[in-house]
Write a structure and sequence with these properties.
The protein has a single domain (about 5-380), classed as Aldolase class I (TIM Barrel). It has helices at about 10-20, 25-30, 40-50, 95-105, 120-125, 140-150, 170-175, 180-195, 195-205, 225-235, 240-250, 265-270, 295-305, 320-325, 335-370, and strands spanning about 65-70, 70-75, 80, 110, 130-135, 155-160, 255-260, 275-280, 310-315, 330-335. The longest helix is centred in the last third of the chain and has 33 residues, at about 335-370. With about 375 residues, it is α/β, with parallel strands linked by helices. An eight-stranded parallel β-sheet has the order 3-10-9-8-7-6-5-4. Helix 5 links the parallel strand 4 and strand 5.
Length: about 375
């Protein structure tokens, strides 16, 4: 039976559908990692190695996955992570993502390099959403974006610190992602031409195809190559914790630092004024052979203690993974590829269905480990 004839349930189901639907260069942009993709694989494998203790004869008749994240109520400890160019994977993809997140009662994070701008996402959202930012050399642009984020109702700023320079993503080089050579243009044109459903849904009716939050920065807002050159020039390799202190001084909401793997960096982030840290290796897209997020989570959580909230991402593929992450010290997890795969495959409904499965998987895993609320998830549940 073909994958198109069965109902998708898991992230891998949606991944298979997304692979069929998307032009190859777009699928590989989401699906791929840095270099040999060893860290990306470790993110998943290290979750799989963790075993949960099955516990019986507990009263698990009333289970709740509800929690608070960054001071806001959530139906479960899951956040839709910021994903660049999500609006090219589905028609106005960030809008569909925020609507699904709102319906599920979980936070949504808009990427600096999303296709839909802050204002469009705010108009589609019924709740405050989060905004992710890179430090750009022009601090005036940073100020302007923070002003726009605040005006759009964003309550939490996610500041990414693990991208002073872009990782080596060989899949993008192989398929000519963003290239201007004749070969790259021909390859992209062929991939687009052989995916007519995407052409109609996203290519035609999903316009404009520009980085919405940055469209005033580049002369031709639909020239992705011009955007890439501008962004590469704007990534600031000189950023230090002093810049985080400056950011803290001009942002009135919650500040969460994303891209922490080491305990001393987590401590420094808190000292600079962060309300939280995200244990993350950028989905395995930056430093290949770096450790997985889940393997680093316990030491970061121990170092931070109760001084800030600890979140994590990388390799989360089920509600069972969410339970494992909380047991090892996370307040919540972020999912990136899974929600974008679901969005590419089935739009907003796909993301909603995926989140419902995550929630149900959490509830079942909690019942079978003998706990009834997320506060009871701790390291004792991990079978050593």
């Amino acid at each position: 039976m073909g994958t198109l004839n069965v109902a998708p349930v898991t992230p891998l189901d949606y991944r298979r559908l997304a692979e069929k639907r998307l032009p190859r260069f777009l699928f590989d942009y989401i699906d791929g990692g840095a270099n040999d993709e060893l860290t990306m694989a470790a993110n998943i494998a290290d979750f799989q190695r963790l075993k949960l203790k099955q516990r019986v004869m507990r009263d698990v008749s009333n289970i709740s996955t509800a929690t608070t994240i960054a001071g806001e109520a959530a139906s479960m400890p899951v956040i839709l992570a910021p994903v660049g160019m999500a609006g090219l994977m589905a028609r106005r993809g960030e809008v569909q993502g925020v609507r699904a997140a709102n319906a599920a009662g979980v936070p949504f994070t808009l990427s600096t390099v999303g296709i839909c701008p802050l204002e469009e996402v705010a108009a589609a959202s019924s709740k405050p959403f989060w905004f992710q930012l890179y430090m750009i050399r022009d601090r005036g642009i940073v100020r302007d974006m923070l002003t726009r984020a605040q005006a759009a109702g964003c309550t939490t700023l996610v500041f990414t610190v693990d991208l002073p320079i872009a990782g080596m993503r060989h899949r993008d080089a192989r398929n000519g992602m963003g290239g201007h050579s004749l070969r790259a243009r021909a390859a992209s044109a062929w991939q687009i031409a052989t995916h007519p459903i995407w052409v109609a849904d996203v290519g035609v009716f999903g316009k404009p195809h520009s980085f919405g939050n940055l469209e005033d920065m580049v002369a031709n807002p639909t020239d992705m190559e011009a955007y890439k050159k501008w962004l590469n020039a704007q990534f600031d390799c000189s950023v230090t914790w002093k810049d985080i202190e400056w950011l803290r001084g001009i942002w009135p909401g919650k500040l969460i630092i994303k891209g922490i793997l080491e305990a001393d960096d987590a401590i420094a982030a808190v000292a600079a004024g962060a309300d939280g840290v995200i244990v993350s290796n950028h989905g395995g897209r930056q430093l290949d052979t770096a450790a997985s997020g889940i393997s680093k989570l316990p030491e970061v959580a121990a170092a931070v203690g109760d001084k800030a909230e600890v979140l994590m991402d990388g390799g989360v593929r089920s509600g069972i993974d969410v339970v494992k992450a909380l047991a090892l010290g996370a307040r919540a997890v972020l999912i990136g590829r899974p929600w974008v795969w679901a969005n590419a495959a089935r739009g907003q409904a796909g993301v909603s269905d995926l989140l419902a499965v995550f929630k149900r998987e959490m509830e079942v895993a909690m019942a079978l480990t003998g706990v009834t609320n997320v506060a009871q998830l701790n390291a004792d549940l991990i079978d050593r």
